Amino acid sequence: MTKAPLTEKSNSATQNIDLMNGYEIAQTINNEDKKVALAIEKTLPQIGEAIELIAKAFHNGGRLAYFGAGTSGRLGVLDASECYPTFGVDENMVQGFIAGGKEALSHSVENAEDKKELGLTDLKSFAPSSKDIIVGISANGNAAYVKAVLEQAQKLGCTTIGISSNTDAEIKEVSDIFINPIVGEEAITGSSRMKSGTAQKMILNMLTTGAMIRIGKTYQNYMIDMRLLNKKLYNRGCRFVAEIAHISQAEAKKYIEESKHEVKTACIMAAKKVSYEEAHRLLEQNEGILRKIL
Q1: What average pLDDT values come out for the chain (294 residues) when binned by 10 residues?
Q2: CB 170 within 8 A of CB 113
Q3: Contact 159, 53 (CB under 8 A)
Q4: Is 200 exposed, middle or buried (0-12, 13-18, 19+ CB in 10 A)?
Q5: Would the CA dihedral through 9, 12, 16, 22 be positive or negative?
Q6: Predicted local confidence at residue 110, as pLDDT
Q7: CB count, 10 Å around CB of 278?
Q8: Which H helix or E strand runs over 178?
Q9: By the 8 A CB rule, do 126 and 57 touch?
Q10: Which H helix or E strand runs over 122?
Q11: 287 is catalytic
Q12: How far is 94 from 92, CA to CA, in rounded Å?
């Protein structure tokens, strides 16, 4: 019998969870969840290195792609899909792939993670080049789908990043950077959508947010390249312009309209009292980084 990965082992702290009431169950799971951030803290050097590499790839015209199965795949797709509205990037710049395709986003396709050919097909559809960063996400780190993607990506000259909660993960051997938060046994044995999933979500947040910050997609902590796709985001954009340029909400709205709903451009127009065209010229001269202009 093969040795069980850490993510599959039984947790002694929750052996009697089936005898607990609702509050006790919540308290017990919460106590386990508290371990996640501390586990991630130990991997910050690897996460920081990954952020710098992803930002460098973006500067050079490269892209980022996540590959995972089950919860890991869904979290990758989620993070990728949020980059377009949050940071105003091209929809192809960050992509997510899940074993089993779109059906697996809402339905369990359990055996998909064992099929490396699915991984190779998805990687081929991404059409990677040596400029791109490929991230494999797997709680136990042994999913054939993910391992096949990372192996092939390395052969193609891509930088590879592996994320797993298992110290003995097979994907470690095909990852240029291996991010390994040791969150311990799950509250429910083998349910890696819990602590391992939470760790993955937190790490993916850091990777894309960190890289976007590094390429100038924020000013201070404001999302200045977000797309104003609805009323909430429109109002947020106006508020950001008002706060950054130190003007009234009414003035900010005027600049948002004149800038064709571009928050970053509106900030420059308002703060520097320049035209839309001049604001864009300043952005081109300063690599799109608002800090350099203001």
Answers
A1: 78 93 97 97 98 97 97 97 95 96 86 92 97 97 96 98 96 98 92 95 98 96 95 97 97 97 97 96 94 94
A2: no
A3: yes
A4: buried
A5: negative
A6: 74
A7: 13
A8: strand 177-179
A9: no
A10: helix 116-126
A11: no
A12: 6
Residue 222 DSSP code: B
Catalytic position from the list 32, 113, 170, 262: 113
CA–CA dist 224, 216 (Å, integer)? 9
| Residue carrying the six token digits 């839309």 | 276
Question: CA–CA distance from 43 to each of 50, 147, 153, 181, 229 (Å)?
Answer: 11, 21, 23, 6, 35
Residue with tokens 């996460």: 47
pLDDT tens digits for 120-169?
Answer: 999 999 999 999 999 999 999 999 999 999 999 999 999 999 999 999 99
pLDDT for residue 111: 87
The count of other CB atoms within 10 Å of the CB of residue 284 is 9
Q: Are 130 and 101 in contact (CB under 8 A)?
A: no
Active site residue 277: no
CB neighbours of residue 61 within 10 Å: 10
Phi/psi at 131 (5° precision): -80, -15
Q: What is the SS3 assignment for 25-69? A: HHHHHHHHHHHHHHHHHCCHHHHHHHHHHHHHHHHCCCCEEEEEC
Active-site annotation holder among 24, 32, 41, 82? 82
Residue matched to tokens 């110290």:
167
Rounded Cα distance between 79 and 277, Å, is: 33
Note the pLDDT of residue 2. 64
